[in-house]
Amino acid sequence: MAWLSDTRSSYDTDASGYAEKVRGLLDERPYLRASLALFAQLVRDAGGGPVADVGCGPGHVTGHLHDAGVDAFGIDLSSEMVAIARRDHPHLRFEVGTMTDLDLADDAVAGIVAFWSVIHVPDDAVPGVFLEFGRVLRPQGLLLIGFHVGDQTRHTSTGYTGRPISVDSHRRTPGKVRGWLRDAGFTTEAELVVGPDDDVPGALVFARSNA
Ligand SMILES: C[S@@+](CC[C@H](N)C(=O)[O-])C[C@H]1O[C@@H](n2cnc3c(N)ncnc32)[C@H](O)[C@@H]1O
Questions:
Q1: How far is 129 from 103, CA to CA, in rounded Å?
Q2: If you measure from the C-alpha of residue 78 to the centroid of ligand 1, how many angstroms do you get, rounded to a whole number?
Q3: Nearest-CA residue for atom 22 of ligand 1
Q4: Rounded to whole angstroms, how far apart are CA atoms 87 and 203?
Q5: Closest CA to 75 of 40, 30, 36, 108
Q6: CA angle at 206 for the pair 202 and 210, rounded to the nearest 5°
Q7: 57 C-alpha to center of ligand 1: Å?
Q8: How far apart (Å, rounded) are the C-alpha atoms in residues 64 and 57?
Q9: Domains of the chain, residue spans
Q10: What is the CATH number of domain 2-209?
Q11: Which end of the chain is more exposed for a tag (fewer CB within 10 A), N or C?
Q12: What is the pLDDT of residue 1?
């Protein structure tokens, strides 16, 4: 799959630039912090358990969840990202892997957070990714997904470090994501659109596995 290898090599190339860009970002994003706090509370209310931060990048969200009392670990396609995550959060577990084929047993996790990572998965591969999330989630497990709102695909050819990369980011409506989730056996419990008047709003969708 060309998109997968392009995404991997792009984030390998740009890992340090991306990590610098998002350092401390959660401090400036109250709606993201509130969503993560709610997610942590809902996972705890359901009895706790491991939570996978899928497409964790440099691990700042994984670290935030850990600080919120969640047994969080990170998975990312890019080995360079995972190296940075391990360096910055040496007390946490990070593994290289892909959301298209997670190296996790069925029903292994109580929750999944996927913040702005499914944005790199093309439409025709999203249903398979959501089925994979449902496979590794416990029955009634919770998914929190964050993504750019819109209906276009943006191609990026220069990374934050100024080096050439090649990666697509797909913007989606919450309704489109909700439809894919429904087809994959999830019930959407809540949606939040952050910055609805911005050029590119962000969406956060909380969904629970029916299985
Ligand atoms: C925009 S960054 C988001 C990183 C982090 N979640 C955040 O909120 O800042 C996208 C991340 O998703 C990872 N990624 C993209 N496709 C992936 C896949 N198929 N499986 C796992 N990780 C993936 C990339 O390597 C990158 O680290």
A1: 13
A2: 8
A3: 55
A4: 29
A5: 108
A6: 145
A7: 5
A8: 13
A9: 2-209
A10: 3.40.50.150
A11: N
A12: 87
CA distance readout (Å), 104 to 35, 99, 116: 25, 10, 21
Query: Which atom of ligand 1 is nearest the CA belonging to 15?
Result: 27
Q: What integer pLDDT is reported at residue 211 of this predicted model?
A: 80
Low-confidence ranges of the chain (pLDDT < 50): none
Q: What is the pLDDT of residue 186?
A: 98
The beta-strand segments (E) located in the chain are 50-54, 71-76, 94-96, 109-115, 137-148, 153-158, 164-170, 186-194, 202-209
CA of 108 to the centre of ligand 1 (A): 21
Return the bridge partners of 111, or none.
51, 142
Name, in order, each residue with C-beta under 8 angstroms of 169's C-beta and a sequence gap of 6 or more: 119, 120, 148, 153, 154, 156
Of 53, 86, 58, 82, the closest CA to residue 68 belongs to 53
State which ligand 1 atom lies nearest to the alpha carbon of 114. Answer: 6
